[in-house]
Amino acid sequence: MCVGLRQQDEIVPHQPGYGVKGRTPPSCCGWSRCCGMGDFRPRTVWLGHPEKREQRYPRNVINNQKYNFFTFLPGVLFNQFKYFFNLYFLLLACSQFVNELRLGALYTYWVPLGFVLIITIVREAVEEVRCFLRDKEVNSQIYSKLSTRGTVKVKSSSIQVGDLIIVEKNQRVPADMIFLRTSEKNGSCFLRTDQLDGETDWKLRLPVSCTQRLPTAADLLQIRSYVYAEEPNIDIHNFIGTFTREDGDPPVNESLSIENTLWASTVIASGTHLYITYSRGSRPQIGLFDLEVNCLTKILFGALVVVSLVMVALQHFAGRWYLQIFRFLLLFSNIVPISLRVNLDMGKMVFSWMIRKDSKIPGTVVRASTIPEQLGRISYLLTDKTGTLTQNEMVFRRLHLGTVAYGMDSMDEVQSHVFSAYTQPSHDLPTSRAPAATKVRKTISSRVHEAVKAIALVHNVTPVYESNGVTDQAEAEQHYEDTCRVYQASSPDEVSLVQWTESVGLTLVGRDQSSMQLRTPSGQILNFTILQIFPFTYESKRMGIIVRDETTGEITFYMKGADVVMAGIVQYNDWLEEECGNMAREGLRVLVVAKKSLTEEQYQDFEARYVQAKLSVHDRSLKVATVIESLEMEMELLCLTGVEDQLQADVRPTLEILRNAGIKVWMLTGDKLETATCTAKNAHLVTRNQDIHVFRPVTTRGEAHLELNAFRRKHDCALVISGDSLEVCLKFYEYEFMELACQCPAVVCCRCAPTQKAQIVRLLQERTGKLTCAVGEEPHNHQTAEGEGKQASLAADFSVSQFKHLGRLLMVHGRNSYKRSAALSQFVIHRSLCISTMQAVFSSVFYFASVPLYQGFLIIGYSTIYTMFPVFSLVLDKDVKSEVAMLYPELYKDLLKGRPLSFKTFLIWVLISIYQGSIIMYGALLLFESEFVHIVAISFTSLILTELLMVALTVQTWHWLMIVAELLSLACYIASLVFLHEFIDVYFIATLSFVWKVTAITLVSCLPLYILKYLRRRFSPPSYSKLTS
């Protein structure tokens, strides 16, 4: 049971692209200032009384649509015409209403523009309908609401701030809520926040203890209570609030933290829970390829203006020359191809579809269908370690007590020590032994027992019992059935530790909010009361628990954490640092476990100060941390634990593929330097013969300067640097550090904070100008999986289920998408330049007259039904098979220089267009006999055949759809000749004279290019042709 505080439309976007079933942050209409919702303020929410709200809140609806019914058409048109080139074509079309500027039929200009707009509108409409249906499905989900009339069913969209909502197992939380009650016996629940931060681990949430103690859920409506909550913000990892019950005697005041909240779109693990709704609070992507194409179209526009001015200048600016300039701008408008943008957009949709449908990379999701060709030009790949290179499935490997260590092969010794600790009283020890030996054995045995007991208690793991078909759930819980037990925890590390204590004889069999039960090897149940829990945070890097042993009454404070923080908390010792380093070098994740015994008076004093600190609204975190730190002194070091996170399948070959493809891989992790270095070697991120330069810890500018100079003298070595040193280097020597780091074949950043990860991505892109791809359970701010820090899961542009799929995604799909996009864009430009060159030749021959060569349907048909399908079929072309692309990743390296679409290739295609356009036009002028319509017939037919032959010349691997497209286009042209008698002499085209003239012109325009292509492949073949032959 929970009470709602904030509604969906108030959700502060945690990251671009968020939520279940396509939920993204609501559009601005949800919480804009015009609705009076712009200012986020703290709020007081009365339980079960939405009418008592002190301010107006938006409806609890998800709305991902960019437009509504009335704004759709104006919005789409505005978004199209805000770009210069679309506006330019609109102005051209409008100019045809002016008689002095009209060059032919109105539809000559309006139909191509309308065609492009219709395709865009249809595409946007399909997207909007999909969004609407997804939103409707989410907003119509039914939830149970507790009211004075009992339990009533409500739609998600009808939930208000202050409502009491019941959420069942596996339901998604409909709005941001405070956790009030649960049906679970252990008084807690687990939820998954994968839709918010990409983390699939279960997280523990606790109900407000005052409301959990009420006899029934209906009593929530009988009490006078309210929740005070901080203002909505983007931080999903912290929350400050208080719960107050006014009718209590005395009034109850409880502090609320992140543990008492359930954010919208999280998933409940089990049980029925009651909450109060509290409510928490698209970017268009333009890729590098699009920017390059825009640059080329600007050059073409410049050429258009120059050609128009030259034509008027050759007329010596006679008469109304300014009108002539406009007429020539209209006449040569084909130089800038209107269909370029729509062809590329449709091509990207095809590439995205191909990625989704590839059976060799199942589960791949394309969220940014506007940038698939970016995958073909990645220079830097930044990856997380945990859950990305590794499986995030932990296996316990080592227990170290300082004087003795136990590995996997000696766990039976640990088991016997634990067994003896619980089955043999101290007086039963063999008396025949020497006293010294007995003492040593007893010491080791008790130390092992203390360590195992501590590991079994200091965690946030909850055992859950499920029916296994033979035993039902209630019976399994009652008898602690081992076969029915599963562990739920927020971290796989914790589960592996608890599973290990079970394997050596001390089993966690029960847990609720206030107690824990352990079962000894002899079957005895040990009861512990949980007095306080201090959960793990990224900042503190440790977790603690205070428990009371019900048998002895002893109060003990247990703590485990990273060695960097625990070193200053435990009593002095001479082995901690050395052994942590040794275990980390083996690739193990190390935790330090310590304890401190407390007297009743010490605990009571601590509790009073702790409760006071938790109730403060201002600087709560700081005050609470200060109180806890007063306990964290001179703790007794018990042991070190080492767990191993195993590598994912095929990580090594994938990293080798990426390295051979010229992609530099950086690993960013929060782990220890030694652990990170070991994983880098293990995964072959650093090759065996490569040197590793470990950047020494630096804290000052001078130290950083000296260390950078030492690093500068190294060549071709991998860099390993810690987050603290990185921060110092970036503060004082940002440019120098990035310059040196970019030259390294591999970089490992350890002890790296999420904010630093985002900063590194940003700096890489700024400094190098190269494309960067960040991969991980929490992608960072970049081009191919955009987001920032811990809150970036659904910001990813592409999602792959396994790291090994990256190889195929980049080597095959990325490479093909980029090469195809380059070929398509250049061919569309060639198609437009050919006809423009012919127009220029025609005008210059006829005394620079601004008269169109082709009119009406000919000009429209040329760029649509006659050539559209063959040109677009280039999106199916490929130079090598996917197996070859994977086998020779060096082919990918060629693309990093941007050669498929460069000024050089652009110039080559411009020259080809000018040559072919001139040959066709001059050939038609030379060979025509008497009538002008013969020129049109000969030149236009030659032009269509040339385009179809040029597509055939460009294609490297034929697909059956390409052949269909070529034949279909030719058939369309031949069939349409019957209806084109207005422009073409139908009787003339049936003569032998027409056929030989068209054949001759087409051969002269295409044959030299075929010969050049053959000679080039013979004497200077591209790298891929060597592999295909």
Automatic annotation (TrEMBL):
GO terms for molecular function: ATP binding; ATP hydrolysis activity; ATPase-coupled intramembrane lipid transporter activity; magnesium ion binding. GO terms for cellular component: endosome; plasma membrane; trans-Golgi network. Keywords: ATP-binding, Golgi apparatus, Lipid transport, Magnesium, Membrane, Metal-binding, Nucleotide-binding, Translocase, Transmembrane, Transmembrane helix, Transport. The gene is SALL4. The chain crosses the membrane at residues 107-126, 299-318, 324-344, 828-848, 854-876, 906-926, 932-953, 960-980, 986-1012. Belongs to the cation transport ATPase (P-type) (TC 3.A.3) family. Type IV subfamily. Residues 49-109 form the P-type ATPase N-terminal domain. Mg(2+) binds at D384, T386. Its main location: Golgi. It is found in: Golgi apparatus, trans-Golgi network membrane; Membrane. It catalyses: ATP + H2O + phospholipidSide 1 = ADP + phosphate + phospholipidSide 2. It is an enzyme of class 7 (translocase). Its EC number is 7.6.2.1. One of its GO terms (biological process) is endocytosis. This is Phospholipid-transporting ATPase. ATP binds at D384, K385, T386, E494, F536, K560, R589, T669, G670, D671, R751, K757. The active site is at D384. InterPro entries: ATPase_P-typ_cyto_dom_N (IPR023299), ATPase_P-typ_P_site (IPR018303), ATPase_P-typ_TM_dom_sf (IPR023298), ATPase_P-typ_transduc_dom_A_sf (IPR008250), HAD-like_sf (IPR036412), HAD_sf (IPR023214), P-type_ATPase_IV (IPR006539), P-type_ATPase_N (IPR032631). Its cofactor is Mg(2+). It comes from Denticeps clupeoides.
